[in-house]
Design a protein that fits this description.
By secondary structure, this protein is mainly α. It has helices at 10-30, 33-56. The longest helix has 24 residues, at 33-56.
Length: 57
Amino acid sequence: MALTLQRLDPDRRRRRLRLLAELADAKTLRDPAQPRRVRADRLRIRELIAARRRLAG
């Protein structure tokens, strides 16, 4: 028995393509925000280290 690939019906194919496009858009919107968070976290850590050095020194 040979396996045959079922073709997606046109509506299902369109919905799938739309969902994939929306996921791609959501990912591109999310990516630029991440570096800002990382920078903010690094700045906060630097401030904590500086405050600790002031207290210890």
